[in-house]
Amino acid sequence: MNSIDEHFRNAVSAYQGVEVRPESEVPPVVLERLFRAQVQSRHLDFAARWLQSEGAGYYTIGSAGHESNAALGLLSRVDDPALLHYRSGGFYAARAQMAGHSTGARDVLMSLTCSTEDPISGGRHKVFGHPDLNIIPQTSTISSHIPRAVGLAFALGLSRADQTVTPWSDDAVVICSFGDASVNHSTATGGFNAAGYMSHRGLECPVLFVCEDNDIGISTRTPEGWTEAALSSLPGVDYWSVEGADPESLLRVTEQALDTVRVQRRPGVLHLRTVRFMGHAGSDAEIAYRTHTEIVADYMRDPVLKTAERLIDQGIRTSAEILQDYEQSRDQVMDVARELIDTSRLKTPHDVMKPLSLPTPESSTTVVPSQRVREQTWGDRLPEHTKPMTLAQAINTTLIDQMAHDRQVLVFGEDVGTKGGVYGVTRGLRKRFGGRRVFDTLLDEQTILGTALGAALVGYTPVPEIQYLAYLHNAEDQLRGEAATLRFFSAGQYQNGMVVRIAGLAYQKGFGGHFHNDNSLAVLLDIPGVIVVVPSHPAEVPELLRTCFDLAQRDGRVCIFVEPIALYHTRDLHEPGDGLWTAGYRPPSEQIGASPLGEITRHGDGRDLLMVTFGNGLPMSLRAARTLADADVATTTVDLRWLAPLPEEALLSAASEFSAVLIVDETRRSGGVSEHIVAALIDGGYRGRLARITSADSFIPLGPAAHTVLLGEDDIVQAAEDLLT
User: Rounded to the nearest 5°, which phi and psi values hold at 602?
Assistant: First the structure.
């Protein structure tokens, strides 16, 4: 069986063109540019296989058969942000060409060889991306990037209304490409739904979804007609379909789709029909699930061949000239590929993890609102001069201060606007700052986080709220696979700083069950680079939340602010009316100097036992400490606050003063926070007596039965006594 390379050369050599050459609506220069980009993409795929055979290439998912996507690179503007499918090599080659970016082929080859000179990921992954080309890198495009693309389009519309300066032009279009198999993923359907919803409401959402449809997902066939049926019926989303092997129709329809989305500022889908050559990737034996006849038949839909034939038909190139151009592109690509066999690669953990390194507390100082802005916001009722606040009130007040200081802060989520949140934490924000800065979203956590991912790229500081911790699991990959990876796989050139507020943990009274009393934080604690903080006492909220804003705005960090629901409106610690779980508001002017990242707080000065805890564990431990004191056991309690990264240095320093340490962990025994704390203490050299007390490995039931599986104060007292005997 001839390879696609051999078939192309044989077909062009034999092709004589048509007798009559009808005039084309497409200028010759456009057809030539299309062919040039397509050919470069094809030879990059050949080079990827060759590099792998030489032990110098590490990625072989190619674009062969999909080169018709080069039309989008030619006809879109260089300043249109693009989030690309891993088969969009033609797009990359075309956009580099239109931008006068002469190293497009070298960029891709450096990425394939994991070269430290790779201009986007620095050798961490093969991605299509470059800041100069406005191509935002995507590492896995099984639709996980679609919510971000929708969020980016929405934020571009928001910025137009606000007259906010963004990295892109005022009428930019977001381009988002993906494969036909990905259309079936829930993330894709959620993204399409969100775009259509915005269109239905009359909100700007200029995103062009591009489905590169080759009728197969790895080895699973897409049922005939399904992709068209799914994409053509999306409410509020315009639909175009075109055959990628018809270059003139391809260019005409692509231009129409781009122009419509750009002018009307509403979403659209370009259903681009393609073929797939050379299997899914280098290790894929396509003949195992496709017949020889099927594979050869697809050769007649080769987009590179069809563009070559059209150039010959129009008298723009002869067959000999086409073959000369084709071989010249091969030589140029292979010359660079050979140069990169011995390219430098990442060699140390430090090199690999550099984009994840956090700023030191000494190098990060929090920017605070000016007194003039605060007086305009609060008038003669500055919050620091009012009554002591609960946890919920302290969060609300800090958000008001921050939003007054920075107009780029957006607060959004389910019920956060008009209602002010299920627990009143965002009450009054919409009235103060308007519906464009504080707004309710769809009931879809993927869309909420996708909106944040896109808005952060535009320059906003998003504060999305996930209404309950259990709801995060519907969308956790938006944090793990999208938010956390962007900085890593772009070597810090792209970032999506945000402060994600999550109402969570257990111990609510009169309302609960496993959805509203979720005590599992495991999914958040192993995401590299993400910061997880749990405030316990209202006195600490302003400092912690402002630090998260600072890390998000100035260092592009993804910060997760987990708010213990049961402590939102708590006022007392020991007896009714003692007010020990309220605090006066700490104004921004008092937060000058190094941030508290990595710091812990200590309660008590006993020397018999150190209790290490966080969240709801803090008030429970303090009450247990009073019970233990009656038995002549003197304790000190440490509130960790920062759960990722753990404040290991401060923790070890505190533990070194004690011969016994008890970890009080309200999360589950397996996969809970205490596992991380124990490992940190042992790895750090702690050799005293060490124990942990946790909740059970169980979902939390409704009603009184919840207390049978949740950590209680009596459990803490008993564990402390057992450890000390």
Answer: -115, 140
